[in-house]
Amino acid sequence: MATDVHRPVTAPAVHVAGLTRSFDGRAVLDDLHVDIRQGEFVALLGRSGCGKSTLLRILAGLDRDIEGTVLVPRRRAVAFQAPRLMPWKRVWRNVLLGLPGKPERAVAERALDEVGLGHRAAAWPKTLSGGEAQRASLARALVREPDLLLLDEPFGALDALTRINAQRLVGELWQRRGCAVLLVTHDVEEAVLLADRVLVMDGGVIALEQRIDLDRPRDITGPRFAELRAKLLERLGVSTTTEAS
Ligand SMILES: Nc1ncnc2c1ncn2[C@@H]1O[C@H](COP(=O)(O)OP(=O)(O)OP(=O)(O)O)[C@@H](O)[C@H]1O
Q: How far is the CA of 96 from the centre of ligand 1 (A)?
């Protein structure tokens, strides 16, 4: 009997093969291939307009006008740069929005506790700070018990200090939950800090794949961190040295 020796022991969380997505006749994603293992944290970098959000929207099931193969877990959740909370619903109701059945408030409160926002469950969205609103948005994703968490620049609009706390929180949530994460970011340091693997998109494909071989918790001051950061910046076309005038 023939056996398929190439078949993986566990199926990947995400399998994308030959994915093409065009807008007005222009292929933004052009025969793109990517796999993400179960429980793996992958960061996606790339110049503005290269198609990162397009890929993420396809994985989220928000865009189906594609060619190619896309296999994703049924349980997946997405958080965007803008928290997208409904202003007329209290925070806990926002967290439960769109969930099937009639989940109880306690379900929302558990997810809010997990992101340190349990005490604001009854608040109106407009009374939240930017960082709190982003955490509420994360709670809304977590309450879906995702096997795949899709994050589209979730920290992009936060100030530096809030951003560091939010990055730490996402790292902790990922370790606790064990779900696969795909994080779209512009921040190379954030990618090296959090990810098992960093992908750089260019020309509609994954142009570089870099494994981050650093132990956790990561030392952002170490030489290997700097080396990885420099390599990724170089691939993104950003110079890491300044010329003396
Ligand atoms: N619905 C759409 N209609 C037409 N063009 C689109 C549409 N969505 C995306 N595009 C185009 O596809 C390209 C990729 O957009 P996308 O938002 O995926 O880039 P990105 O890498 O996420 O950019 P950024 O880093 O600036 O967020 C852009 O040129 C954009 O104008």
A: 29
Are the C-beta atoms of residues 158 and 166 closer than 8 Å to each other?
Answer: yes
Q: How far apart are CA 58 and CA 67, in angstroms?
A: 11
Nearest CA to ligand 1 atom 28: 49
Under 8 Å between Cβ of 145 and 87: no
Q: In this predicted model, what pLDDT tens digit does every residue of 145-183 receive, in sequence order?
A: 999 999 999 888 788 888 899 899 999 999 999 999 999
* Closest-CA residue to 152 (of 83, 97, 210): 83
CA neighbor of 68 nearest in space, from 30, 36, 14: 30
Query: Which CATH number describes the domain made up of 14-75+146-235?
Result: 3.40.50.300
Sketch the domain layout of the chain as residue ranges.
Answer: 14-75+146-235, 86-144
Query: Which residue, 85, 77, 173, is CA-closest to 128?
Result: 85
Token look-up 């080396």 returns 227
Q: List residues near ligand 1 (CB under 6 A).
A: 23, 28, 46, 48-54
Q: Whole-model pTM? A: 0.92
- Within 8 A by CB and 6+ apart from 86, the residues are 93, 94, 97, 125
